């Protein structure tokens, strides 16, 4: 079922039309890949669904309800979490502290847990998704680039995200670390999340995508389901 739907969304900055009549549907248990060169409108799209900007035209629906987000908090409360390229992790803080960072207030009872228990929760949640971090007290900076992405994504999921928006999560990674992240994207998808995978890399998109949307100069120029992109005719 559709969790997030954009219908003919438009966004204008002064006299620049950054987005024009954008249709995008994010289904539960699917990866929607959004591709496009610089200037295509990807960042603007992220800002709209993450509550940093409102849209100027069209409609956005979350679980079938018409919504305008007034703040990032609104987006999070609606179950839409964005994992930015900088990940918003504190490099010198432990993995477990990062896991809870910024979210202590979102799940009340957790505030009462002691640090050993919080470490165990973080470790369990990560292990569930195939990320084994034996020493959860080590600084997040000591993890690989792929693991850091996974920690940021796992944190969003644990704190109630139903849709995760991933801003170029493999852009700074090599083959092996990209594999770590792509595998995690598949796990998140199979756990029933809606994933929006924003990327420049068509190969990475093809490895995990169910649905492909290509933006060019603020418009959708391709919108295809995976089965329509196979080589067999
Ligand atoms: P992408 O992330 O795909 O590179 P953007 O969403 O950043 O695309 O940009 C889409 C278009 O909107 C570009 O033409 C860009 O110059 C313009 N744009 C983005 N942000 C602003 C802004 N704050 N003010 C004016 N123009 C902007
Ligand atoms: P905010 O609403 O947070 O102030 P803006 O939309 O004004 O954000 O700017 C967001 C980002 O877009 C900034 O990084 C800014 O440098 C960039 N930006 C601003 N104007 C343009 C433009 N004409 N083209 C491309 N990017 C722009």
Automatic annotation (TrEMBL):
Q: Does the keyword Hydrolase apply?
A: no
The Swiss-Prot or TrEMBL record annotates one GO molecular function as: ATP hydrolysis activity
All residue ranges annotated as the ABC transporter domain in the record: 4-233
Which keywords has UniProt assigned to this entry? Answer: ATP-binding, Nucleotide-binding, Sugar transport, Transport
Query: What's the protein here called?
Result: Simple sugar transport system ATP-binding protein
Q: Top-down, what is the taxonomic lineage of the species of origin?
A: Bacteria, Bacillati, Actinomycetota, Actinomycetes, Micrococcales
Coverage span on the entire protein:
18 to 250 of 279
């Amino acid at each position: 079922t559709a969790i997030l739907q954009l219908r003919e969304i438009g966004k204008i900055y002064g006299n620049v039309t950054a987005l024009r009549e954008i249709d995008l549907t994010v289904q539960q248990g699917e990866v929607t890949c959004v591709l496009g060169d610089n200037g295509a409108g990807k960042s603007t799209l992220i800002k709209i669904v993450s509550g940093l900007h409102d849209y100027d035209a069209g409609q956005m629906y979350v679980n079938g309800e018409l919504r305008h987000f007034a703040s990032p908090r609104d987006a999070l409360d609606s179950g839409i979490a964005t994992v930015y390229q900088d990940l918003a992790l504190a490099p010198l803080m432990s993995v477990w502290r990062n896991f809870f960072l910024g979210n202590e207030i979102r799940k009340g009872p957790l505030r009462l847990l002691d640090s050993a228990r919080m470490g165990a929760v973080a470790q369990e949640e990560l292990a569930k998704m195939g990320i084994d971090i034996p020493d959860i007290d080590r600084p997040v900076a000591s993890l690989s680039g792929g693991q850091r992405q996974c920690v940021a994504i796992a944190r969003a999921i644990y704190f109630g995200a139903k849709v995760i928006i991933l801003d170029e999560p493999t852009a700074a990674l090599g083959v092996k670390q990209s594999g770590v992240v792509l595998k995690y994207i598949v796990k998140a998808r199979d756990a029933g999340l809606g994933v929006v995978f924003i990327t420049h890399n068509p190969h990475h998109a093809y490895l995990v995508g169910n649905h492909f949307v290509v933006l060019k100069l603020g418009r959708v120029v391709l919108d295809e389901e995976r089965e329509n992109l196979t080589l067999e005719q």
